[in-house]
Specification:
Elements: E1 2-9, H1 15-25, E2 29-33, H2 62-74, E3 97-103, E4 118-123, H3 126-134, H4 146-164, E5 171-174, H5 179-198
Parallel strand pairs: 1-3, 1-4, 2-3, 4-5
Helix pairs in contact: 1-5
Catalytic activity: beta-nicotinamide D-riboside + ATP = beta-nicotinamide D-ribonucleotide + ADP + H(+); beta-D-ribosylnicotinate + ATP = nicotinate beta-D-ribonucleotide + ADP + H(+)
GO molecular function, one term: metal ion binding
Pathway: Cofactor biosynthesis; NAD(+) biosynthesis
Length: 199
C-alpha cells in the first residue's frame, strides 16, 4: 500500500528538515527532493534585470522528477527504503510505503496533482523569510536585490494561484513554529490518515 505526501514551502521554510525528521519516524519512508532536479545555471533563463529565474518550473527538469516519483510508486520496496522495526504507533503499517516529496513549486504542476494523499505548505512572513534566506549560501550566490526582485514575488504569485484553486486540499503550516511542534502535528496527521486508509 502506498502513501504519498507533499511538503511544499516558501524558501527556507523548513521543509527539508521536516521531511528528514519524518523519514526517521515513519516506516518504509523515502524522500524525493525537487532541489535535485534543477537545471544547470547555463540552462536557466535570465530576465531583463539580470535575475536568474530559478523560482519557476522552467528552471527544473520536472519530467525527470515525475518519472522518479512514478518509478518509486511502481517499486517502492526496490528503492531501498525498508526500515527496521517501525515505532509502535506504526506496528499495523508495516506493509505501507511512504513517499515524501519536498520542494517549493509542486502543487500547481498538473501531472503530479492526482498522486497525493496529503499536502502541506509551510509559510513564513516576509521579514523572517528574508532573514533566513540571508543566512544561506547559494550557488550562484543571491545578488542584493534577488530576494525582493524575484524570490518573494514568485512565492506570492504561486501561493495566490494555489489559494484560488478551490479543489486543492492543502494544509497550511506556520513555519515560525518550532520544528518540534510542526513535526508533532504532521506526524500525528499522517498516522491518522494512514489508519483511515487501512480501515
Amino acid at each position: 500500500e502506498l502513501f504519498t505526501m507533499f511538503s511544499n514551502s516558501v524558501t527556507n521554510g523548513g521543509k527539508t528538515t521536516l521531511a528528514e525528521k519524518l523519514k526517521n519516524m515513519l516506516p518504509n519512508c523515502d524522500i524525493i527532493s525537487q532541489d535535485d532536479f534543477f537545471k544547470p545555471e547555463s540552462e536557466v533563463e535570465t530576465d531583463e534585470r539580470g535575475f536568474k529565474l530559478y523560482d519557476v518550473l522552467d528552471a527544473l527538469y520536472m519530467d525527470e522528477m515525475v518519472a522518479s516519483i512514478r518509478n518509486w510508486m511502481k517499486s517502492p520496496a526496490g528503492s531501498g527504503v525498508l526500515t527496521e522495526e517501525p515505532q509502535s504507533t506504526c506496528d499495523n503499517l508495516k506493509n505501507v510505503f511512504i513517499l515524501i516529496v519536498e520542494g517549493f513549486l509542486l502543487y500547481n504542476y498538473k501531472p503530479l496533482n492526482e498522486l497525493w494523499n496529503r499536502r502541506y505548505f509551510l509559510t513564513l512572513p516576509y521579514e523572517e523569510c528574508k532573514r533566513r534566506r540571508s543566512t544561506r549560501v547559494y550557488q550562484p550566490a543571491d545578488t542584493p536585490d534577488y530576494f525582493d526582485g524575484h524570490v518573494w514575488p514568485m512565492y506570492l504569485k504561486y501561493k495566490s494561484e494555489l489559494e484560488e484553486n478551490a479543489s486543492m486540499q492543502v494544509d497550511y503550516l506556520d513555519g515560525t513554529k518550532s520544528q518540534e511542534e510542526l513535526l508533532s502535528y504532521v506526524y500525528s496527521d499522517i498516522i491518522e490518515e494512514l489508519n483511515k486508509l487501512r480501515e
